Amino acid sequence: MTEPAERKGYFVRLLALFPLICLINFSSVEAKTVYHKWEVKYEYKSPDCYKKLVITINGRSPGPTIFAQQGDTVFVELKNSLWTENVAVHWHGIRQLGTPWSDGAEGVTQCPILPGETFIYRFVVDRAGTYLYHGHYGMQRAAGLYGSIIVSLPEGVSEPFSYDYDQNIILNDWYHASTNEQAAGLSAIPFVFVGEPQSLLINGRGKYNCSLSTASGSAAGVCNTTNPECSPSSLTVVPGKTYRLRIGSLTSLSALTFEIEGHDMTVVEADGNYVEPFAIRNLYIYSGETYSVLVKADQESSRNYWATINVVARNPATPTGLAIFNYYPNHPQKQPPTAPATGPLWNDTASRLAQSLAFRARQGFINKPPVTADRVIVLLNTQNKIDGHFKWSLNNLSLILPQTPYLVALKENLTGAFAQDPPPDGYDVANYDIHSVAENVNATSSNRIYRLRFNSTVDVILQNANSMTVKNSETHPWHLHGHDFWVLGYGTGKYNISCDWRKYNLVNPIMKNTAPLHPYGWTALRFRADNPGVWAFHCHVESHFYMGMGVVFEEGIEKVGELPSSIRGCGESEGHHRP
Amino acid sequence: MTEPAERKGYFVRLLALFPLICLINFSSVEAKTVYHKWEVKYEYKSPDCYKKLVITINGRSPGPTIFAQQGDTVFVELKNSLWTENVAVHWHGIRQLGTPWSDGAEGVTQCPILPGETFIYRFVVDRAGTYLYHGHYGMQRAAGLYGSIIVSLPEGVSEPFSYDYDQNIILNDWYHASTNEQAAGLSAIPFVFVGEPQSLLINGRGKYNCSLSTASGSAAGVCNTTNPECSPSSLTVVPGKTYRLRIGSLTSLSALTFEIEGHDMTVVEADGNYVEPFAIRNLYIYSGETYSVLVKADQESSRNYWATINVVARNPATPTGLAIFNYYPNHPQKQPPTAPATGPLWNDTASRLAQSLAFRARQGFINKPPVTADRVIVLLNTQNKIDGHFKWSLNNLSLILPQTPYLVALKENLTGAFAQDPPPDGYDVANYDIHSVAENVNATSSNRIYRLRFNSTVDVILQNANSMTVKNSETHPWHLHGHDFWVLGYGTGKYNISCDWRKYNLVNPIMKNTAPLHPYGWTALRFRADNPGVWAFHCHVESHFYMGMGVVFEEGIEKVGELPSSIRGCGESEGHHRP
C-alpha cells in the first residue's frame, strides 16, 4: 500500500539527480529514465516470524518495486554491501533488446559484482506488463533477493480490460536454512535435499508455527509470532471496485495454487502478454510466472476474506500461505471468520494441465507464430548421478557455468572458456523409457551451448521423465531469458515428433517467458532467435538450476554491440568491474 | 601424528609433478619447491561436537600443515569452491621478500579470488620457524580457514637447543554463529557483539556442552558429543623424551593461557625467532602469535595429563579447551584422573605483562635494532561510534579497505583509489585521558595510509585506552605483515615520549610479527621499512579488524617488480584473475 508514495520518492530523487532531463520528461510523453539506487546487504529479518539473515535491497525483502512506463530506461545502480559474497540480479521477463549484458545472469552475461563494488544495470522496458527481478548467482534468490517490476502503458493507451486499481502480489516459499546450508546439502555425498519450505510468503510475509522451532533449531527470541514483520499482508479493497491483481511467483521449489475465498478471478495477462480472459477460482502459478487477474470486490463487505496459497505438484509439508483480502473499512488485520482454503489436491496433475491448456492469446493481440520451425531441439529432462552427486540433465548434459561469462567469451572468441562442441538436439527417443528410473550412466557435467542461427525459428520440446525415485516425475517451470516463446502445446507421455505437432495451437497461442513442464508430460515451445546475445533457458526451481538443469542459447553474437567493461573481471575476461 | 606421512605425501606428489627438479633437489641441499593443491569449500563439520558449516581446505579444518625447509619456494594452487564467496589467504609470519603480491591480504595486496577461480600463491620461506596461514577476507578466518606452516632449518644446520621430536599445536576459539551472522551483528544498529566463543579448540577439536544446545539453537542431531570428530586431540609422548611443541594461536577473540598439567615448559622460539630460553608453567598466547616450547615427558608415565587452554584478558564464559598429553603406551583417549587446570586469574594483567617483558633474544642470535628511529608513529587505540556504528580507530581513523588493492593502486598511481592525505603520526597526548570513556566525535572511517621512507627505521607506539565501556580497556594483539619488529618495551599508562624510550631494551629485544597491547598500557615496536610493498598492521582480533582496527604501511613501492595480473580484477585494477 506504500507503493504510490515510494514511486513518488523515486521521481523526487530522480528530479534531484537529473533536474533538466526530468523536467523535460515530465512535461512530455517521451520515454523517461527511472533511476534506482540500491544497496544489497544481509540483515536480520523475520518474514515468517523466524529471524534469520536475509539479503535485502535498501533494507527490504522483497526489494522495492520498480515502476516504469513502456519505453522508459531503467537504471539500477546496485551497490554490493555483502561482506564476502558477490551478487548479480536478473530482470525476469525484460528481453534486454540491445542490452544483453544487462540480463544479470552470472556466468552467462556478466561476471559477478564484488563486495563493495557498484554495478549499473541499464535497460529499456519495451513493453507494459508484470515482471520480476531476482538474484541470479548461486542460490541468492532464495535468500530474499527478489522483487517486482511493473511496466505501465504509454500515456493515452488503455488496457483492453477495465479495472479501478491495481495491487501487486509477490509469492515465495521460505526456508530457515541459509543458502550456504542448502547448497552444502545439495553438493554433499550423500545428497541432502533442501526439503519442503518452512513457510509460504505473500508479499514477503508468512507465519511459521514457532512451537516447532525448538525442534528445528531456533534460539529463544528467534521465532516470535507477534513480530509485526510477519503479520499477514493485507490487500485492501473498496466494495464494488474491480482490482487488477498482478501476481508473480519466485518460489525456490513450490508450485502454488492461489485463490481468494469466495471470489472469482479473471485472468487477463500472463508474463506481460494479454490472454483471452477466462474465469477461474484458483490460479496455478509456477516459479517465474506472472499473471494479472481481475477481481471484483463483490462479496459481503462486513468481513474480510482469506487470500491463500497452497503447494501443489509436491506432497505438501508446508502450511497454507495467508494474506487478508480486506474489505474497507474493516480493520486490515481482522481475521476472516472462515477456515482458509486448502486448495485442490496436490497431485491433481490433470487439473493443472487443463489450466495450462486453457490459455489463449487475447483476440486483437495475437502475435502469430511462424508456422514451421527451422530447428527442433528436444530436451529430455532427467535426474542423474554424476561422480556421486545428484544432478539434473538435459539430454544427459548437466549445466555448469564457465568462469568466463559466455557473452564475453563468445564476443571475444575466447574459445578456451567453454567446450565448443554443441550439445545434442535430441535423445534416444526409441529406447528411452520415460516412465522408469534410468541411471543415465553417460550423463556428464558440461558447459556446451546451443548456437542458433540468427532470426531462425526454434522449437524446444521439453520432455519430462521419471526422476531417480520410483514412480516420481517432477514439475519444472522452464524460463527463457531474452525472449518470449509461443506455448504451442502440452501433452502427456512421450512426445511423438511425427504426429504431436498436430496438437499445436498455431492460431492463438499465448506467449510467455516461463512455462511448466508437467509430470511425465511434454511442453512444446517456439521462439524466434532474433535477440542478439547469449541467453539462459532453465528450470526455475532454485535447487534444480543449481544442480545443472539448464541450457544456454547463443544467437547473433556478431550483432552484439561493444560490451561494457563492467561485466568483465572474471575468468579469462580482461577489464575491470567499474563501468 | 599423521603429519610425517602427510609430508611424505606432498613430496610424492611433488615428485610426480616435477620429477627431474625433485630428483636433483633430493640429492642436494638446494632449495626445493613445495607444492600444495588446495580446494577451499564449505562443508559440515563438528569441531566441538556442534555441527555447522565450516570453510575447509581439502576437506579439513584446520587445513593441511605446510612443511618446508628454509629457502624453499612454496606454491599453493588454491581453488575457490565456495558458492558465492570470494577468498584470500594470508601467510602469517612469512615476510614475502620480493613477492609482496603473495601476502594474501585482500584489499591490500590482492583482489579476492572469485568462486570457481584458481589462484597461485608463490613465496619463499626464507627462515626456519613456526608460522601460520589463514583467511584474510571478511571474517573467513573465523569460519575455519586456517592452518600451520612449519619451516625447518637447512640440512646440516642445527637448532641451538635439542629435542627428540616436534609436535604441532594450533589453538582457536569457536563460534556456532556463521561469520555472516557475526558480521551482521557487528554492523547492526544497535550493535550486537559476537560475544564469547562457544568453545576453545586445540588442533581443531573442542567439546561443547550439548545440553546447552537447545537453548542456543541446535536441532536434534546437530550436537553430538560422541562424534569422533570432536574427541580431544592427543599429544602422544614417549616417556623420557623431549618435545618441541610448536604452538600457534588463531583465535578470533580470546587471549589464552596454555599449560600442560605437571610439566614445565621452556620457551625457545617466538614468531620464528629464537628467544633466550626461560621456564614457564603457563604460556600466555595471543591471536597471531606462535611459540616453540620444550617439554620433557618426565612425569609419572602410567597416566595421561591434561593440556589446557583457558581464556584470559576477558571475563571468560567459555569452558577450558582440552587436549590429552598422552604418555605412550597409555590409550591416547584415556582421561587423566585429575581436574583440568583453570589457569591464572583472567584479569591478572600484571602477570601477562610480566611474561611479555620476560622475552629476550637468544644469545648468539641477537639481531640488534637501530639505536634510533627516523620516525615515531604513536597510535592511540580507541573505540568510537561512527555514523551510529561501533568502530575501532587509530588516532581517530577507522580503516576501511578500498576496492582497489593498495599494492595495485600505488604501483600504478591510481590516485583515485584511496585518500592520498596521510593519517596522523600522533594524537593529542596532552589532553587525551586514556582512563576515561571518550566519545571521539571526530573519528571517521578512512582508507588513508602511512607512506614510509624506504629503509628508514620506524617506531610504532601502540597506546591503549579505555573502550566505550566504563573502566574497560581491552587486549589487542597487533600483527605486522611483511616484517618482524623489535619489541622494545611495554609499559602501563600513557606513553611519555620524552622519557619512556629510556625503558627500551636495545640490547637484546626479541623480534616478532605479533605483540600484545595490554589494557591501559603501551607497546613500543621498531622496524625497518626495508621490504618493498604495502603491508597491513592490525589488531588480530577478527571482530576488531572488521571494525577498522588497522593501518597500512607503504614502503619502496617503486622497487616492487611487475605485479602478477592474477591479483587484479577489482575496483580500478584492470586485468584478469588468471595468472
From TrEMBL, chains A, B:
InterPro entries: Cu-oxidase-like_N, Cu-oxidase_2nd, Cu-oxidase_C, Cu-oxidase_fam, Cu_oxidase_CS, Cu_oxidase_Cu_BS, Cupredoxin, CuRO_3_AAO. It is an enzyme of class 1 (oxidoreductase). Pfam families: Cu-oxidase, Cu-oxidase_2, Cu-oxidase_3. Gene3D superfamilies: Cupredoxins - blue copper proteins. It comes from the Eukaryota. Keywords: Copper, Disulfide bond, Glycoprotein, Metal-binding, Oxidoreductase, Repeat, Secreted, Signal. Residues 1-31 form the signal peptide. GO terms for molecular function: copper ion binding; L-ascorbate oxidase activity. Its main location: secreted. Its EC number is 1.10.3.3. SUPFAM superfamilies: Cupredoxins (SSF49503). It comes from Salix koriyanagi. GO terms for cellular component: extracellular region. This is L-ascorbate oxidase. It catalyses: 4 L-ascorbate + O2 = 4 monodehydro-L-ascorbate radical + 2 H2O.
